[in-house]
Amino acid sequence: MSVYSIFFYLIAAVMILSTALAVTRKNMVHAVLFLVISFLASALLFFLLGAPLLGILEVVIYAGAIMVLFLFVVMMIRIRAPEGSGFLLWHYMGAGGLSAVYVAACLLLIRHAGPGTGAAMAAAVAAPADFGQYLFERHWLGIEIVSLLLLVALIGVLHLGLSRAGRRSGKGGAH
Amino acid sequence: MWIWLLGYLVLMAKITAVLTAVMVLAAYLVLVERKLLGRFQVRYGPNRAGIYGILQPVADGIKLLLKEDLVPEGADRAIFLAAPAVVATTALMMFAVVPFGPRLTIGGREIPMVITDINVGLLYVFALSSLGVYGVALGGWASNSKYALLGGIRGAAQMISYELALGLSIVPVVMLAGSFSLVDIVNAQAGLPFILVQPLAFGVFLISAMAETKRIPFDLPEAETELGAGYHTEYSGMRFGLFFLGEYVHMQVMGALVAVFFLGGWRGPVLPPPVWLLVKIVFVVLFMIWVRATLPRLRYDQLMNLGWKVLIPLALVNILITGAFVAA
């Protein structure tokens, strides 16, 4: 076993463990934090596989931006943890069933590996400039659609915020 | 095998040197700030420990270590204990990609004068900076105190807002240098430091950097007049010290980033490169202290307006203009 594979299994174990803890915690802040640890671990995995750009993007976007917003909301609304024993049997059975399907699919993929299965994707391990070139030459339409979607969401939030501010002050407009 | 070991030793030596320099400088920046604030307010500042108060940081350090480490009742213990470390660690780790000299050749072997030169160095800095938010937000939340919670929420909102301006203001620099690597960005300024080419980006970056460090005039997360001490109200002893250390290390990081992105990094005549970098860092930090002594705290809506309605649009326009020039 090489040093790399030892690191791989360590990080993978951290990832699975923290994700499992994230979905079973009743305290929302703890759940968010375990998910952050899971994202950090997957970022480390990207680093280990030679794709630092993807690893850093994982940290900046998921661990650094999205989860901070989650934490922000959880801190603001202060949900009380529900009393009682927590999850019911069928919760566990549903989750277990879905995981089993996923694991089975992965095993099937590994069994029927072709010649190119283990190779790294060239664009994923490329330098940032090459990665950007690949993305905008091959998948520009997808990127534009996503950015349009984000723009629509942005305008929607602005509209909701403005109309609520208008109702509260009784005049319309924020200030 | 022994070459690998040698490389490892060199790396450890570099990390030790950088961490020592940063920590010592942080301790003495506290003294410099208190001295300067004293002068700005026509008083002496600390002058009891040693001549000119030169032993004050030592005394402060001993005091912080010896004080009781309190955990308030009802606090979320694990998170409360870990939050200060998150703030200090993320700030310290940012120095890993700051270059402090050109490649050194010793015995035919080239040694890069930077702890690690990854091709996404700039993104690495921003990733750590966005993780630093967790320390502030969680420290405030875990304290189980309304002042700390308000400070933490304010801190998170402020840092998220200004991170955008910080990141957008630096895009023109990346366009000109053609790389995310801090080493390449310094190399691209061999002729002209970017402050002369990108004065607008420099201004936006400097203001956002001050807001990121949460200092006056942007110190709403710890506004003494409203929130006690904000997110670290409930902390005592060395855990408070770690928040404090994090703030001063963060100031140095921002000074180093301003130096690397706009002032040519370690470049300069006569003096050796690491000294030039140090001079530039201290210069930027002194400017921050001067601003702190001069301006009053912003109101919360002014803070948000400045970030979202002034700095971010300015940075976006600057990207457009630079893009037009680069493409032409």
Description of the structure:
The complex is a heterodimer of chains A (175) and B (328). Helices cover 76% and strands 0% of the residues of chain A. Chain A is mostly helical. In chain A, helix 1 packs antiparallel against helix 2 (28-48) and helix 2 (28-48) runs antiparallel to helix 3. The longest helix of chain A has 30 residues, at 140-169. The mean pLDDT of chain A is 83. The longest helix of chain B is centred in the first third of the chain and has 39 residues, at 2-40. Chain B has a two-stranded antiparallel ribbon with strand order 1-2. The termini of chain B are far apart. In chain B, helix 1 runs parallel beside helix 11 and helix 10 (237-262) crosses helix 11 (273-294). Chain B is globular and about 55 Å long. Chain B contains twelve helices and two strands; from the N terminus they run H-H-H-E-E-H-H-H-H-H-H-H-H-H. The mean pLDDT of chain B is 87. With 328 residues, chain B is mainly alpha-helical. Helices cover 69% and strands 2% of the residues of chain B. The A-B interface holds A 29-30, 33, 36, 52-53, 56-57, 59-60, 63-65, 68-69, 71-72, 75-76, 127-129 and B 76, 79, 118-120, 123-124, 126-127, 130-131, 133-134, 137-138, 141, 149, 152-153, 156-157, 160, 178-180.
